[in-house]
Design brief:
- The chain has 416 residues and is α+β, with helices and mostly antiparallel strands.
- It is globular.
- Helix 7 packs parallel to helix 8.
Length: 416
């Protein structure tokens, strides 16, 4: 698979293309609207809730973040060293949830306490962000949890001396000791820098999570990376994790039509039929329409549903309507979906197909989906959605560059 990367001073995008030149992954964003998930901030407790056994934290976001007691490291608790040691013993004997179950947050935490917090779930609708003090730093091959309650280290023997505390896990297999060493040292350096920034109070934002590049690399078997030649300066710091890098010109031009298709509600099946995706505030519905197409299209339809969920980053409750299909094939469809969802990097659960031909899928929220990123409510009618002006502007500039490269003269008409 190929990874395509483009970035300028205000905008960036990346895509994963398979050997059949089909797009398997796409994301784009403006730098003034970066995702918060994974970012690390200085937080201050502003309210304690006994009923929720949680704290509300001001970390600089639009709303206060929610911090459950189970997401607070015991080092922040207002308890004696003997009590902390007792907690450590309980955690080692069972788990953190059992060790914390009898604690009252009002007795062990204080208003205005300053903490290092990481966003584990972004603000969604009226809900604030979910926060945690158990910091997780993800590299190319390793995940480093520097303040883990229980130390678990999965490293080659010759690298153990580098870790003073915390836990290290492999999330991507690698047998190259040099790559692992480089990855580990990078993560340790990031944590040291976070601590320095926190102690020196340089900024409220301590760390920006670069999941933009890491997610496609960790989710797909990337064999080649192509970077737009005008964007090289933005990716210099990631060269050690990008496989087989080469430069190109207008590298996204051949897949622009696939990107445009992500904005369409209707997606055609190669073997006939189509699916319709509709977003609502409560859930996303996917209507599978095959008409009189023969049963062989069932597999294609199910594969397309799974592919579109990943491409569009659809999360939450997803209602899939298979009412058009022969109910005698329900078990086959359920098995195909179950097999495909195993490859999803997000946590996904699903029900069986009901007597009405409905399947419910619950997909873990990771980041905003393409619809929420690119569209906003129409202020004229207040009942529909339009593409944001800045995305329209970026597309216009891109199309002009394509035409100029083909030596096609441009004639622009501007009106108020």
């Amino acid at each position: 698979m190929k990874l395509l990367l483009y970035e300028n001073e205000r905008y960036r995008r990346c895509a994963v293309i398979d050997k059949n030149n089909k797009m398997q992954f796409f994301q784009e964003e403006f730098k003034d609207e970066l995702n918060e998930k994974g970012n690390i901030y200085v937080g201050k407790i502003v309210k304690l809730s006994k009923s929720l056994n949680a704290a509300f934290v001001d970390y600089g976001g639009n709303r206060y973040g929610f911090l459950s007691i189970y997401s607070i490291h015991f080092e922040y608790f207002n308890i004696s060293n003997d009590q902390k040691q007792l907690l450590i013993n309980k955690i080692q004997d069972s788990n953190l949830k059992n060790a914390y179950k009898d604690l009252n947050i009002e007795k062990i935490m204080s208003i205005n306490t300053t903490l290092i917090v990481q966003v584990t779930r972004e603000t969604s609708g009226d809900k604030g962000s979910m926060l945690s003090t158990f910091i997780s730093l993800k590299g190319r091959f390793l995940t480093y949890i520097p303040n883990s309650c229980v130390s678990k280290i999965f490293l080659p023997q010759e690298l153990l001396y580098l870790i003073k505390s915390g836990s290290i896990f492999h999330h991507t297999p690698c047998n190259n000791i040099d790559y692992i060493t480089h990855d580990l040292l990078s993560l340790i350096n990031i944590w040291d820098q976070i601590i320095d920034n926190f102690n020196n109070k340089l900024s409220n934002l301590l760390y920006i999570n670069e999941n933009f590049i890491l997610k496609p690399i960790n989710s797909f078997n990337i064999q080649e990376t192509i970077i737009e030649e005008t964007s090289l300066e933005y990716f210099n710091t990631y060269m050690h994790i990008l496989p087989n890098v080469s430069l190109g010109v207008y590298i996204f031009r051949s897949c622009e039509y696939m990107i445009d298709n992500l904005q369409s509600n209707t997606i055609q099946l190669d073997s006939g039929g189509y699916i319709i995706i509709t977003h609502t505030p409560a859930c996303t519905t996917i209507d599978v329409n095959l008409g009189n197409i023969i049963n062989i299209s069932y597999n294609d339809a199910v594969l397309l549903v799974n592919k579109e969920m990943i491409l569009r980053n659809i999360s939450g409750i997803i209602i899939v309507d298979f009412i058009d299909m022969d109910h005698n094939n329900n078990k086959i469809i359920e098995n195909i979906i179950h097999s495909e969802l195993k490859n999803d990097t997000c946590k996904v659960t699903h029900t069986n197909i009901s007597q009405f031909g409905i399947m419910e899928i619950c997909r873990q929220y990771e980041n905003k989906n393409i619809f929420n990123i690119k569209y906003e409510e129409c202020l004229s009618c207040n009942s529909g959605y339009i593409e944001k002006i800045k995305f329209q502007g970026e597309k216009f500039i891109r199309e002009c560059k394509y035409l100029i490269s083909d030596n096609i003269p441009l004639e622009l008409f501007v009106s108020n």
